[in-house]
Amino acid sequence: MSHLHPKLLERLQYVWLVWRRLRDGLTASPRHRGPPAEPQWTTSRDYCPGDDYRDVDWAFCARQDELLTRQCQGEIDSHAYLLLDCSCAMAVGEPSKLAAARSVAAAAAYCALAESQRVGIYAFAERVVAGLVAVRGRSRFAKVLNLLDAISPQPAAADLPAAARALVRQHQRPGPTMVLSGTYDLPGLQRGLENLSYHGYCPRLVRLYDAQEAAPDMLGDVELFDVETGQARLVTVTERDLKYYSQLYAEFCDHLRRYCARRAIPYVELCAGWPERELLLRAMGVRGLPAEKR
Amino acid sequence: MTFFEPSALAWALLAVPVLLLYLWRLRPPRYRVSTGVFWRRVFARYGLRSVWRPCRPWASLALQLAILLLLILAMAEPHVCPPRQIALVIDNSASMSATDVAPSRLERAKQLAREWIHSLGYRDQVAVLSCAEPARIVAGLTGRREVLYQAIDAIAPSEAVGEMLPCLATARLLLARSPESKIVVFSDGCFSEAAEVARAADVAWVTVGGESDNVAVTQFCARREIADPARCQVLVEVSSYSHKPVDCSLEFKLEGKRIDRVSVHLSPAARWQQIYELKRLEAGRLDVQLDPPDALPIDNAASVRLPPCPTRHVILVDRQGLHLRRALESNPRVELSVAQAVPSSLDPHAILVLHRCGADRLSAGASLVIAPIASGPLWQSGEPVAEAVVVRQDDESPVLAGVRLVGTRWPGARRLVLTEQARSIARPIVWAADGTPLAYQIASQTARMLLLSGDPGAGELSAQPALPLLMSNAIEWLAGDDPRSGPAVEVSASAGCRLRDELDVRVPAELRGVAATWSTLAEAALWWYFAGAACVVVVVEWGLYQRRWTC
Fold first, then answer.
1. Interface contact flag, A92 B34, Cβ < 8 Å
2. Is A278 left (phi over 0), alpha (psi -120 to 50) or beta?
3. Is the pTM of this model over 0.90?
């Protein structure tokens, strides 16, 4: 059974149209429309594992029995990546943060594919648990959906640095990377984003949260179950506790916001409980919400 | 410590659902959080709370049970006053039979008294007294509830007047040795000293009943008419003890058979009287019933016995006295037999009337001899009296009651010379002009005789009503009755006729709703302290567990 909304395609089309008009978002790279231009091969180098087999100079190989990878000059494919957090923290909330992240990832992938970008998607928890090597063309969107549908929450905490390392190691061709995460591991987030920035992946952070996390309304005797550690704790929550919690939460958000601003990393906060249309448009960086077409 | 309302302790069963609900809610709701980072910092700020946390739920349960316990104790009204002696005075006078309080005021008073005994402290002693005439101690001072319950059950409704003051005096004597004593009166206050009694310092008053209107048959009596003993006169009086006009009806029954029904309209606090005539010779029972029924049923009915009308057997030995015969026949109480000669066998209870005949034989009981033609056993007949006109009569004689004979002529009157034996017991009652006695009444211990020397029926007296009256008086006197005493009056013995001034069953306004309770006898009401403590614990519990705001 699909976790995605049945009218998702319809909505994604709308989101893409809006995003195209505003042109500010994930694939803000130089515009590339239509099929890629004929490449102009200039140099060659030794084949390395991971190189596209289509770039292998098969003629030279036939003659010299040696694998060379052709280096081309001119307009090439642009890549976009999605790092999707599927740790246990993403299963919290109703709807869950993971469900919202799926929708956002689908929208971003759709827009990227529609712009003829290659899209790579990687789901991670303490490591990368599922992935889709960069695909191109809108016809591959079904693969994207299948992957997103197959992602389920993992019983582990999120480790963005590990996921960033895996991404960097796997792809030599960097591209804008959207990080969809709901973790509160601030050092981990910072290390992961720094790693991506360092390797030219232009990270964009989309942080998903649940309304109960931002403003919990529990009072009195409650049992708090930490899904990351699996520990339960009986506590008595008072108004004063909630007030202090809100203060800490605001400090965390403010700290993350300032960090992203300092590093020129686009940062978006999304509440999983928002309506899907608002969620998607905000994720794509659309501030003013145009009226939806009927 | 004892309790005024021990039944309130049953509320302690509420502790069971409180406990069950608490155990059910002991596991608090579970919240899944993405991270414990913030919460750990929040709770690290209050280190002491972690120590308090494990016992916090049980402390809450203990506080809630304490609230429940304190409230129950407050409702049970505990008291620690010293043992007391209490006299319960139950008014069982006639007015307590009123049914304005179901089933009756007396039953309600007994029920209230039982409730008082139910709340009895284990060292308290109670006596039970009833105040209807005569006031009596139904149960002496005791702490045994069974004995007191039996004593209260034994108090029966009475149709007598209440003797509240003597009853209170008796109760005070009973309680004289106890300083912590009280007299509790269960009454409707329908007696003149009620307000004064209720105000007494040592009396706790419990009013039973309310404002009830009453209509009563307050007089019902019957007698024979003097002139016509065959007729009875019946007096009925109905009194209203109400603030508003009353319409009712009276139904009369003779020997259980309805003979009449009368409608009566009574103004407020008015009395209605009526005399009815009833022709009946025989004795009988006459009942009257007031309809519709009111709050006090015992005064709605009365019955009276009609006095009998005894007949006298009279044997008239006469040959020519038509007037005398008619005079005797006109008397309905005379059973007349006419004979030509004195019968050979005489009924000793019969009255023998000898008219103008020989009197050699007289009745052993009573005889009336009129104008004897010869000497008799008690007299010698002499020469005729020249002027047999009555000039003087003895008005003290019962035979002449209501009869005026002076001036009448007695034809054929003779001078009679009484024997020595008769002279001592004879009394002349009528005299002629020359002083000759014309009539004697002779009475011994065993016999009576009236001796008339002339024949009053032969003169002008025959045409006057004095002759039948004279004969009637003579027959009554000879029969042993005194005609001057009049007919016997039979008075009803019903409660309404006996309690004429006690039938106002309206509870005095100042006593309505007055109801002393056990707690009113207590010196210090502990329930107040328990209720206050419960409030304090409620505030504490709220502050610890329910508070939602912080300073």
1. yes
2. alpha
3. no
